[in-house]
Amino acid sequence: MEFKKNDTVTLYIEDMGHDGEGIGKADGYTLFVKDTVIGDKVEARIMKMKKNYGYARLMKVLEPSKDRVQPRCPAARACGGCQLQFLSYEKQLEFKKNKVKGNLKRIGGFENICIEQVIGMEEPWRYRNKAQFPVGKNKDGEIITGFYAGRTHSIISNKNCYLGTEVNEQILEEVLVYMKENHIEPYDEVSGTGLVRHVLIRCGFKTGEIMVCLVLNGDALPKAEKLTARLQEIPGMTSITFNVNKKRNNVILGDKIVKLWGQDYISDYIGEVQYRISPLSFYQVNPVQTEKLYNTALEYAGLTGKEIVWDLYCGIGTISLFLAQKAKQVYGVEIVPAAIADAKKNAERNGIANAEFYVGKAEDVLPKKYEEEGVSADVIVVDPPRKGCDEALLETMLKMNPERIVYVSCDSATLARDLKRLCAEKYEVKRVAVCDMFPQGVHVETCVLLQRRTM
Ligand code: SAH
């Protein structure tokens, strides 16, 4: 191959990789080019070369693909947040559907799976209810907030991310003015000095409640009343707190929360169920799509009110509480104790008495309960992290022999692997839906219904 690093090549983008990069060939050599889409003819500079493929940087779009769109965000290329802003939303959904289909076929061996539904967003912007903006200084020493440039920690000034709510910009402006007027220094990662590290903002989409939490490298916020006076004026403001994080690492939040004004939590609803959200609680970031996904899981579970349901990897019990409304009894299992504490409180607050929760690894708790207590299930729901279900769990699920299994997955590769195991003898894939929880990004959620075969 006659190319070398820094060469400029012309190529036609004919495919897209799992991370949304365009893929094309220059004289038979495969190049991955970020920010390009299928159908683009581009000029790109080779940045990194491996034996069989390399990475190139988009220099110029020579002929745009018919599916290329103007990104809404001016920082789309530099920011590490979005990968697909250059692609029309319709094609983003197609990309996600094909990704799931491809994995089910390649890894699971499922040849003719019909994905019956791709659940997209009507408005694929401003869907995030949570944002964490780093605070720092630009080259001129001015205090800024925005986003980390892809794979780095240099901050690109941007207060108006199109994935977040519009009120974010106003909140950030108030914080910056307060910092400048009161000589509050932003945190400097290199020296470990300065005070304000991040601004965390969360919004209850159904309640309209807003939370602002400043993450501090210190135990107090000087002249805090000047900040709270400003922020209180914003309609919906419900909670103003600070979080203490003096550690020199990349974890955003520390353990301690101090209330400055209002409550130390906000509330929101998924369906009819109310959740209390503190700065530290886990809560799905796209509430609109979460509700659609869980409604799909509920539909697939086919509950009539008589069923015993196990919800494994239950987190704060969102799916469990959703299902409890239609089931006889729901049992949730989750590894994080704080999440289970939230799940129990959420059940109580909503008057849901038929949901019980256990802390532990799903692959320990379920086999133990099954072997020692002989627990049973009519329906099992799993929503594991990206690595998928543990083998020991799948074995127990097969032994328990529920009528239906609903598999909610954030990684279609491990989903395909696990479905292959579950379908080897007993189950068959009945229904598959793909839900777009992260428009403009590459991640995709899948919901699958497995039905026990009639022998
Ligand atoms: N359904 C949940 C979110 C599931 S995300 C909700 O809607 O809130 C996956 C969850 O699995 C996380 O909460 C994670 O803490 C948990 N988890 C990871 N490994 C686990 C294991 N081995 N056993 C049980 N839970 C686990």
Describe this structure as you would to a colleague.
Helix content is 24%, strand content 32%. With 455 residues, it is an alpha/beta fold. It has three domains: 8-63, Beta Barrel (OB fold (Dihydrolipoamide Acetyltransferase, E2P)); 97-122 and 286-452, Vaccinia Virus protein VP39 (Rossmann fold, 3-Layer(aba) Sandwich), CATH 3.40.50; 130-270, OB fold (Dihydrolipoamide Acetyltransferase, E2P), CATH 2.40.50.1070. Helix 2 (167-181) runs antiparallel to helix 3 (224-232). The model has no long low-confidence stretch (mean pLDDT 95). The structure holds S-adenosyl-L-homocysteine. The site of S-adenosyl-L-homocysteine has 18 residues, from helix 5, strand 17 and helix 7.
Q: Evaluate the radius of gyration.
A: 24 Å
CATH homologous superfamily descriptor of the largest domain: Vaccinia Virus protein VP39
Number of domains: 3
Unreliable sequence segments:
none
Short description:
This protein is of the alpha/beta class and 455 residues long. The protein has helices at 89-106, 167-181, 224-232, 287-301, 318-324, 337-349, 362-373, 391-400, 412-423; strands spanning 8-16, 22-26, 29-33, 41-49, 53-63, 115-119, 130-137, 143-148, 155-157, 196-203, 210-216, 237-244, 256-262, 266-270, 273-277, 308-312, 329-334, 355-359, 379-382, 404-409, 427-435, 445-452.
